[in-house]
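Example 882.
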Amino acid sequence: MAELETSGDGGASDPDAPRTRREVTGLSSAEAAERLAAQGPNRLPTAPPPPWWRSLLAQMTHFFAVMLWIAGVLAFVAGLPQLGVAIYVVIVVNGVFAFLQEHRAERAAERLRELLPRDVTVVRDGEPVTVPADDLVVDDLVLLEAGDRISADLVASEAHALRVDTSTLTGESVPEAIEAGDRLSAGCFVVEGEARAVVVAVGADTRLAGIAALARSRSRPPSPLARELHRLVITIARIAVGVGVAFFGLALLLGTAPSDGFLFAVGVTVALVPEGLLPTVTLSLAIGAQRMAARKALVRRLESVETLGSTTFICTDKTGTLTRNEMEVRVVWTPTGTTRLAGGGYGPVADLVDGSVARAGAQQVAQVARACSTGRAVEVDGVWRAQGDPMEAAIDALSRRLADGTEPVDGVVRRRFPFDPRRRRMSVVVDGRLLLKGAPETVLDRCRPPGPGVDAPAEVVEQLTAEGLRVLAVATRDAQAIGPDDDADRAERDLTLLGLLAFEDPPRSDVHDSLGECRRAGIKVAMITGDHPATAHAIAVETGLALPGAPVLDGSDLPDDDTELGELLDTDGIVVARVSPEDKLRIARALQERGHVVAMTGDGVNDGPALQQADIGVAMGESGTDVARESADLVLLDDHFATIVAAVEQGRATFTNVRRFLTYHLTDNVAELTPFVVWALSAGRIPLALGVLQILALDIGTDLLPALALGAEPPSDRVLDRAPHSGHLLNRRVLVRVFGVLGPAEAVIEMAAFAAVLLVGGWRPGHEVPTDWPVLLAASGAAFSAVVLGQLANMAACRSSFVPVWRLRWRGANRLLGIAAVTSLAALAASLFVPWLADLLGQAPPPPVGWAVALLAVPAVWLADSVHKRARRGRAARLVAT
Ligand code: ATP
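Predicted structure in complex with adenosine-5'-triphosphate:
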């Protein structure tokens, strides 16, 4: 960031060129407020959303809906108008339901986008302040640094080694070098250097506004989860149609009238098609995303909620994520002696612990380091805080402490070589001297050897880093020999080392617990940091991240071969220090090749590719750059490691919920299909227990709400007690549970209730009965009731895949479950006791024997479920024991 205090006669591209007052002090707050009121916020005009009816129509014209429309037409053609109407009712009810769910999900996603921080630094009243990007007005003076997103069209008044990524506008992937006087467009990113620039256009007047209008018409490709769900749904639909056709053939073979055969075929198909699945998944993800946001984890794409749940490896950085990012200089080393300071936050007073002899040297080191810093310690409401980079603010605080309260004076910056994470240093030219600070390894080699009798600085660095302190070297040289065309590499040579600064940045208090949770959850954690290996290791030990025997690697020692790299890194508690952004990218890829689902944090300007490569790119909301945030899937609003773990927990809960309602949905299908199978296998000797209309009523009457309720279940306490789940929603376990346990239990009672009523009513196998025989209608009512009650029991059972229903906690549980249960029971009562509805569905209230058997569906489902859960728990325990 450009030096603000440069006097009116100076600029850094051409420091002596005259500048207007506005280019020095910016607008006044009053002027800015006036302009904002007149101009309106700096926002891109948004296209009006598509009209609601079009979205609703889309829900009724997708693949399944089209299948159902065709089935409806066929029903009319076959002379079954009631069925045709019923199918259309299903399409409409499902469509409206899906539309409402999608609408809610979209609203949730929109609200999440609004939470994403988007701030800019501007000069107002001569002081740098951070304001929301929406508040930028024409003539505002903006300060830019590497990693910033450009939020309005600007003209650079000063540029230091500025390079801008314009790919969003031009598609050009090579960053463009920008000089003073050049224009910068909104939507681009600063990838290198620093600048001051004046706003020339905002909102709808920017170049981006025109292009964004074009981009909006392009649709986004579907996410992996959406693709997997689509595949799942298509597979089920194919099976449904296949089974339907097979039934039609079978019915004809058995001598059934073609229209009845057709009725069966449609029934089977409709029974199996999972119409409500996709919107329920979307809504479930949106609920997950909202819950994450409440815990300060902001997902930028809904599907990331699910991916987060399958995370197996977290690569976290150190500063700010594991530590508090509250820096303080505790030691200043100079060739003449060491000064130690007591803590004092960012305030201007702190006691010297020892080293008063070295104070003058320490003061010089602090002043030089401050001259090439822009972060400052500022007093707000009586409290001293960091503004800008906390490490640089700590340097500012130090220089005040050592200067006994005298205000530091800033020289005119003639030249600036901004920080970049590959060089790991930065410098400025002030008053004929180059002043530099940076990572000791990259500075000491460039310094002249120290005089005799002085401790070797490298050894001092080793001691200080071993204490967990972050160390910076501070050096200088005469600037006369630096040519105007010399780059940083040539300018930053032949240095004289002035001293070392050692910063303390304490670990966050709850990181220890969060790391414990990761381990419990079977997730490996690695520290991937730009800092010194010894500092990194000390912090890793202090937080409990480092496990005994886990290695500490240096970025420069990483093997070139990706497979070897993956093997080396696949260790819990490993520390990789001094990594470059390129290393991060390779690390993510190497771990993914070993089958890991990788979450990787990054906040720097060059971390974009690594964040995109990782399955979950995690950026910092408070301290990170805009570039990192734009590439990330997850933004931590509080920059906190514990928040990643909270997000993983919610991700797992959401995945589990999707599985829960999938299990629920499919179980119903088994119960709906069974009457047809029994009818076919008995060659028609046992009448159909459920008609197609009853099946449709089950699908829309009893399935929708409980599935929704299951999708909104909160995370269980044990969600982090298990190993991460593998990627497939529909795995063997779910299939066994549906087709081997829950489905059969429900179906057996359904058929038993049906048979009991028939037998008590005098029917014997093989008897031909008319479809309107009252006993048959009552038997069908009993079967229907058994399925509804069984599904209610199933809803409770699906709340957990481990814990039996009676051990589940019900107090304070998800209220939607209760609502769903009451609604289902009310729908059941209506379908039996409202005469016209019962007639339409082809059923009647069952006699006491029918009720007695139907009610058994509840204990039967719970019993089967708990036996299965017990067996699973036993198997899991045996696995652990071996
Ligand atoms: P982490 O990845 O854990 O957040 P980091 O913040 O230390 O680590 P970088 O910001 O890439 O990673 O910094 C790498 C090194 O560069 C630091 O250890 C420090 O030595 C040096 N450095 C960082 N910031 C500055 C700065 N403003 N001026 C000079 N040197 C710096």
